[in-house]
Design goal:
Length: 478
C-alpha cells in the first residue's frame, strides 16, 4: 500500500536522529539568513524542527541528516501543503489571504513604536483586573522589565545592521553578561525561563492545530517559546521569530493563562487606546458614553463617531489559525460572529440611529490582523448572509453604511493613520478614500487587498511622535 503524503514525511523524519535534523535545519536557516533569501519558506523549517521532537529521537541506529536531506524533506512538505491548503480554484483572493496569513512571520517589521504601544496598552490604566500585577505574579517580571529585556534582545539580534558584528542566531555569553548587569541575575533567569522552549511538553500545551498540514501555519509555539537550547547555547531559530515575540508575547501569554478576565479588560484598553489617537489627531469626536447621552434608546451604539459620519469600532481579537488557514465561509462565520459581524451590525445600527450623514463610513480596529481588508471583500467572503438577515429583522437599509464604505485595520495601522492626520492636511476619511480607490483600481500594479498597503505606499514612516507613545517611551528610557 502506498504511503499517504504525510506518512512519507513522517517516515523520512523517523529515519534520522533528532539532533541531526535540528543541527542541519539550523545550518540551513543560517545560510538563508546570510544570503538574505527573503522568500524562503522558513515556516517549513520551523515546523520540521517541531516534528523532529514528535516523530523521532536520538539512537545509534538512525542516520544523520545533512542539509541535503533537510531540503528533500522540505520538498515533501511543500508538496504536502500545495495539494491541501492553497488551492486557487476556490478564489484567487482567498488564496492570497491564506498566503498573507502564512507569511506574516517573514513580513513583520519591528520599529520602536511596537515596544511603546505595549507599554501604553498595558501600563497606563488601572482596573479591576490588573494585567500588570497578574503578569508579574505569573512570570516574576514586571511588564516594563519584560519589554525592556525584549527590546535589548531585539537589538542584540540585529546588531549586524549597525556594525560589523556577525549574526548567527546564538545568544552568546556577552548577551547574558549585559542582561545580568542591566537587570540582575534573578530577572534575567525569569526571562530565560518563560521564553525557553522545553520540547514535547511545550508542543502539547501550545499547539492549536491537530492536522499536520495546518500546523505549517502556526506561529504560536515559537512566538511564546523563541529561546531554543542546542549544543550548549540558547539561540533563536530565525530572528523573524523574535519579531512576533516582541509584538505579541504579552497578549498571547495573558490570553492563554487568563482568557476571560484578560479579554474583557484588554477590550476596554483597546477602546481607550484608540481614543488616545482621536485626541492626538485634533479631530472632534464623541465616545460611546457621549453618544448614548445624545441618543438615548438608540440600541446598539459604536465606540466612536468622528468627522460627522465616520463610525469606529474596536475589537480586541485575533484570528485562530484554523480560520486563517482554511478560510471557508462557515468557519469564518463562526469565527467572526461575535467580532467582525457584530461590529458591522453595530455600525449599521448606529448609522441609522444617530442621524449622522448618510452614507456613513465604518472603521473596525482590531489588535491583530484578521486579513479581512475591505468591506467589499468581507461581504463576498462571509458577511452578506448574516448582515442581510440582521437588516431584515432590524428594518435598516444597507445604504446607511454599505460594505464598500467599510474597512478593517490593526491597532498599528491606526497609529499610522493618526500620525498622517497629525502631520498632513488630511482627514481619516481622506486616507480611507485613497485606500478604497486603490482597492478598486483596474490597474493590477495599483490594486491592494489590505489597508496597510496604502499606508506604506503613500505615507511611509519610520518613527512616530504621538504623545501617548512618547509618554510610554520615557518608561523605556528610565
Amino acid at each position: 500500500m502506498a504511503l499517504q503524503p504525510f506518512d512519507k514525511i513522517k517516515t523520512k523524519i523517523h529515519n534520522f536522529t533528532r539532533s541531526s535534523i535540528i543541527e542541519s535545519s539550523i545550518e540551513l536557516l543560517s545560510i538563508v539568513e546570510k544570503e538574505q533569501k527573503k522568500n524562503f519558506p522558513i515556516w517549513f523549517v520551523l515546523v520540521l524542527v517541531k516534528w523532529a521532537f514528535v516523530y523521532t529521537k536520538n539512537t545509534k541506529f538512525k542516520k544523520r541528516a545533512t542539509i541535503h536531506d533537510i531540503i528533500n524533506i522540505l520538498r515533501l512538505i511543500e508538496e504536502f501543503e500545495s495539494r491541501r491548503v492553497i488551492d486557487f480554484k476556490f478564489g484567487i483572493r482567498r488564496g492570497l489571504r491564506i498566503l498573507a496569513y502564512q507569511q506574516s512571520l517573514i513580513t513583520e517589521n519591528i520599529h520602536t513604536d511596537v515596544f511603546e504601544r505595549q507599554l501604553a496598552l498595558y501600563t497606563q490604566r488601572k482596573s479591576r483586573f490588573d494585567i500588570e500585577s497578574d503578569f508579574q505574579k505569573r512570570t516574576n517580571l514586571t511588564i516594563v522589565d519584560f519589554i525592556k529585556m525584549s527590546q535589548y534582545t531585539f537589538i542584540y539580534l540585529n546588531m549586524d545592521k549597525f556594525n560589523t558584528w556577525i549574526y548567527d542566531g546564538v545568544l552568546h555569553q556577552d548577551y547574558w553578561d549585559i542582561m545580568n548587569k542591566q537587570f540582575g541575575h534573578t530577572k534575567t533567569k525569569s526571562f530565560e525561563t518563560i521564553l525557553a522552549f522545553k520540547g514535547e511538553s511545550d508542543i502539547l500545551k501550545l499547539q492549536k492545530m491537530t492536522q499536520e498540514v495546518y500546523q505549517l501555519y502556526e506561529t504560536n509555539l515559537w512566538t511564546l517559546k523563541p529561546f531554543f537550547f542546542f549544543r550548549g547555547n540558547y539561540r533563536i531559530l530565525h530572528r523573524t521569530v523574535f519579531n512576533l515575540t516582541v509584538r505579541d508575547f504579552i497578549y498571547d501569554f495573558m490570553k492563554r493563562v487568563a482568557p476571560e478576565e484578560f479579554g474583557r479588560e484588554f477590550g476596554h484598553r483597546m477602546e481607550r487606546y484608540v481614543e488616545f489617537g482621536l485626541e492626538e489627531s485634533g479631530k472632534s469626536f464623541k465616545n460611546e458614553q457621549e453618544l448614548r447621552l445624545d441618543f438615548p434608546g438608540s440600541g446598539k451604539i459604536v465606540d466612536f463617531l468622528t468627522e460627522e459620519n465616520l463610525l469606529i469600532e474596536c475589537k480586541a481579537i485575533e484570528l485562530h489559525p484554523r480560520a486563517g488557514i482554511i478560510r471557508k465561509k462557515e468557519l469564518l462565520l463562526n469565527e467572526f460572529q461575535d467580532s467582525i459581524i457584530k461590529s458591522y451590525q453595530q455600525l449599521l445600527s448606529a448609522a441609522q440611529s444617530i442621524k449622522c450623514s448618510i452614507p456613513a463610513y465604518g472603521l473596525v480596529v482590531t489588535y491583530k490582523d484578521t486579513y479581512v481588508g475591505f468591506g467589499s471583500d468581507a461581504w463576498s467572503e462571509f458577511l452578506e448572509r448574516p448582515i442581510l438577515e440582521f437588516l431584515k429583522s432590524s428594518n435598516i437599509p444597507l445604504s446607511v453604511l454599505p460594505p464598500e464604505n467599510l474597512c478593517f485595520i490593526t491597532i498599528q495601522d491606526w497609529d499610522h493613520m493618526v500620525q498622517v492626520v497629525k502631520e498632513k492636511p488630511l482627514s481619516f476619511k481622506d486616507i480611507m478614500h485613497m485606500a478604497f480607490s486603490s482597492f478598486r483600481s483596474k490597474i493590477p500594479d495599483e490594486q491592494i487587498m489590505f489597508f496597510d498597503q496604502e499606508l506604506k505606499k503613500q505615507f511611509p514612516i519610520s518613527t512616530t511622535n504621538l504623545s501617548y507613545l512618547q509618554n510610554a517611551r520615557t518608561l523605556l528610557n528610565n
